[in-house]
Amino acid sequence: MNDPREWNPYYVNSPYTMNPEHRAFPWLYPYGSQMNYWNLWDSPERMEDEMDTMRLRELYPLMARRLQPYVEEVCTRLEYPGSMMYDEYPDQLSLLQKAKEVWAGASAGEDFGEKAPAWEQMKDLIGVLLLQEMMRRRKKSRCCTIR
Predict the structure, then answer these.
(1) What is each CA distance from 31 to 3, 40, 72, 80, in whole angstroms?
(2) DSSP string covering 69-126, please?
(3) Nearest Cα to 30, choosing from 49, 12, 55?
(4) Quick check: helix, strand or coil at residue 11?
(5) What pLDDT is attached to residue 96?
(6) How is the chain split into domains, by residue range?
(7) Which residue from 34, 24, 32, 16 is spatially nearest to 4, judged by alpha carbons?
(8) 11 contacts: CB under 8 Å, gap ≥ 6
(9) What's the CA gap between 68 and 106, in Å, rounded?
(10) Separation between Cα atoms, residue 34 and residue 15, nearest integer Å
(11) pTM of the prediction?
(12) CA neighbours within 13 Å on the CB side: how many for 10?
């Protein structure tokens, strides 16, 4: 039992294991980790909203589906109190900078081939994806705050 990746009966189903991709039943949680389901367990409406969001994202065009993880990554870094994401009126320049950040990550991480789109062609799509993800997270944050 010196190797932490060795089988341990007490940690087989734990979400805190070293190799979460080797979960005992990975098909039980198709939309994220087990922790997402624990957080949504007491609110079936929110669970249904999350599942609807995932189903509708599967219908996105190919380029939007390829860009979505990079948009989520940028929005995750923006989730802190006082962030520009939670401003009442986010300014256009900050949104454009975040969109450029998304495009920089996507162009570095994805292989678009010889027909790679330019920034000017993608900034509207990235802007819409970014605004939609920010709106979803603002709504989630608004309903979950304790007053």
Answers:
(1) 30, 12, 14, 23
(2) HHHHHHHHHT-STT-GGG-SS--HHHHHHHHHHHHHHHHHH---GGGPPPHHHHHHHH
(3) 55
(4) coil
(5) 95
(6) 1-59, 62-147
(7) 16
(8) 17
(9) 9
(10) 7
(11) 0.68
(12) 2
Measured CA to CA, the distance from residue 95 to residue 103 in angstroms comes to 12
Q: Is the Cβ–Cβ distance between 24 and 12 less than 8 Å?
A: yes
**32: helix, strand or coil:** coil
The 10s digit of each residue's pLDDT in 66-106 is 999 999 999 999 998 889 988 888 899 999 999 999 999 99
Residue 127, token pair as written in the block: 């802007």
- State residue 147's pLDDT score: 44
Residue with tokens 């309903």: 143
Placement of tokens 């007490």 in the chain: 10
Asked if 60 and 129 count as a contact pair (C-beta separation under 8 A), the reply is: no
Taking the C-alpha atoms of residue 138 and residue 95, their distance in angstroms, rounded to an integer, is: 15
